[in-house]
From TrEMBL:
The keyword Calcium does not apply. GO terms for cellular component: plasma membrane. InterPro entries: Cat_transpt, TrkH. Pfam families: TrkH. This is TrkH family potassium uptake protein. K(+) binds at T111, T112, G220, T315. PANTHER family: TRK SYSTEM POTASSIUM UPTAKE PROTEIN TRKG-RELATED. Keywords: Cell inner membrane, Cell membrane, Ion transport, Membrane, Metal-binding, Potassium, Potassium transport, Transmembrane, Transmembrane helix, Transport. It is found in: Cell inner membrane. It comes from Ancylomarina euxinus. It comes from the Bacteria.
């Protein structure tokens, strides 16, 4: 075990977190929130000093690492980042307890967007800025950011990218991994800047524009308003819809679009499926809201597609309370929680491409019943998928659903009703935010027990690391011998 490497990278991550925290200070000054200034300074000092100590103690570390170090680092980084990120919430007394602060922090970094704040607008605005910023830091992935900032990691870069699988599609990596990390962050920053400017042109002030841009591009969902997106005008909601939609698309396709490779978008089956699901479900709910509930057509269209896009991309913004709709709409929203965005996007969930492959596997099974001797390979974008990869995807979906069920059962044991328990489980794993029942879009997670507030962040991290990267470190074989 190359422990020095792991500790050194954790030190670097803590320095990055401290650097981002420093951007809270100007907002403290701007909003005259001097009562929390010392708390913010403490919050900055703790990760800063800890990070510097870890780096100094691990000088001369080897950059040669295996999968074991990468997996441990990926899992521990999110936990340590969550603890460090909780300090502004806890020390400023924005939350009532450290468990609440940790919940809010991990929910932010994993871009889940579930909140324990009962009155968001009463919280210090500087802390709400940090709350939105945690989305933006976690959206692309802290490991991806670390590799972009510290290209000297060299050989270790690819290992780290692969271990933090939900940040990007590792199959699209260039030979120089740090160069790809910089390109991805360049696209990420550009989209954030563009959205911020457009929101400001729509009459939203800079503070709220940048906070909602952080949350939209990272598909996080934290808002600075109690009514979330419902507070804003239809124009602002359409802007948020558009940027949530494109943030749920593989960032490798964004890069291809910039390079003029438009055929990559047209021929990409995951993108076509993703857009088709949004269109079909959004249209179905729109018609039900128009004909059954009697909403004006434009509002029915906007409310439906906003919620559909928000859920499938795992953003979690709400412009309406979908629990006030009919039960068919509830069911469609709940099913969308199991879909997810595209692989390589900032969105969470199982991911559309895995569902595409699973459906192809099912059709192949039917075909083999009719033609037992026929051999049919699974193809994606006209390329055959290795059978081992197909099996791993089917296994992933099974494990994902199994953990969702276990998580729901554990939450049931804490006293939650079935709808709240199981929707909270899937919404945490998928990084979505609101669920059904008492954790719906018009509610929050403040009423949950401390045990539930510990279970849910664990599910958030498991989902953010796409299950296997987190669970593998708990297997006995992981700690025996060398893993390559």
């Amino acid at each position: 075990m190359n422990l020095k490497f792991v500790l050194n990278i954790i030190g670097r991550i803590l320095l990055i977190i401290a650097a981002f925290m420093m951007t809270i200070v100007p907002w403290v000054i701007y909003f005259h929130e001097n009562s929390i200034l010392f708390a913010i300074e403490e919050s900055i000092a703790i990760p800063l000093i800890t990070g510097l100590v870890l780096i100094l103690l691990t000088k001369g570390y080897s950059k040669e690492i295996g999968a074991k170090e990468a997996y441990i680092l990926a899992s521990s980084a999110w936990i340590i980042m969550g603890v460090a990120g909780s300090l502004p919430f806890w020390l400023s007394h924005t939350t009532n307890s450290f468990i609440d602060a940790l919940f809010e922090s991990i929910s932010g970094f994993t871009t889940t967007g579930s909140s324990i704040l009962t009155d968001i607008e009463a919280a210090p605005k500087a802390v709400l800025y940090w709350r939105s910023l945690t989305h933006w830091i976690g959206g692309m992935g802290i490991i991806v950011l670390t590799v972009a900032i510290f290209p000297s990691l060299r050989v270790a870069s690819y290992r780290l990218f692969s271990s933090e699988s939900s940040g990007i599609d590792s199959s699209k990596l260039m030979p120089k991994t740090s160069s790809m990390a910089k390109r991805l962050w360049g696209i990420y920053i550009s989209l954030t800047a563009i959205m911020t400017v457009i929101l400001m042109l729509g009459g939203v002030n800079f503070y709220e524009s940048i906070c909602h841009a952080f949350a939209s591009i990272a598909t996080g969902g934290f808002s600075t308003k109690n009514a979330s997106a419902g507070f804003y005008t239809p124009f602002v909601q359409y802007v948020m819809m558009f940027f949530m939609l494109i943030s749920g698309i593989n960032f490798a396709l964004h890069y291809g679009f910039i390079k003029g490779r438009f055929k990559d978008l047209i021929n990409n089956i995951e993108l076509r499926t993703y857009l088709s699901i949004i269109f079909l479900v959004g249209t179905t709910i729109s018609l039900m809201l128009y004909f059954k509930i009697g909403l004006p057509f434009e509002q029915a269209f906007r409310d439906s597609f906003f919620q559909v896009i928000s859920v499938i991309t795992a953003t979690g913004f709400a412009s309406a309370d979908y629990l006030e709709w009919n039960q068919v709409s509830w069911l469609l929203i709940f099913l969308l929680m199991f879909v997810g965005a595209c692989v390589g996007s900032t969105g969470g969930g199982i991911k559309v491409i895995r569902h595409v492959i699973a459906v192809k596997v099912i059709f192949r099974l039917f075909l083999q019943q009719i033609h037992p001797c026929r051999v049919k390979l699974i193809q994606i974008n006209k390329k055959s998928i290795d059978e081992n990869k197909v099996h791993s995807i089917v296994t992933f979906i099974f494990i994902y659903l199994f953990i969702f069920f276990i998580g729901g059962m554990c939450l049931l044991a804490t006293g939650l009703d079935p709808a709240s328990a199981f929707s909270a489980s899937i919404t945490s794993m998928g990084g979505i935010g609101p669920g059904l029942g008492t954790v719906g879009p018009a509610s929050n997670f403040a009423h949950l027990s401390d045990v539930a507030k510990i279970i849910l962040p664990i599910l958030m991290i498991i989902g953010r690391l796409e299950v296997l990267s987190f669970l593998v470190i708990f297997t006995p074989s992981f700690w025996k011998g060398n893993i390559k």
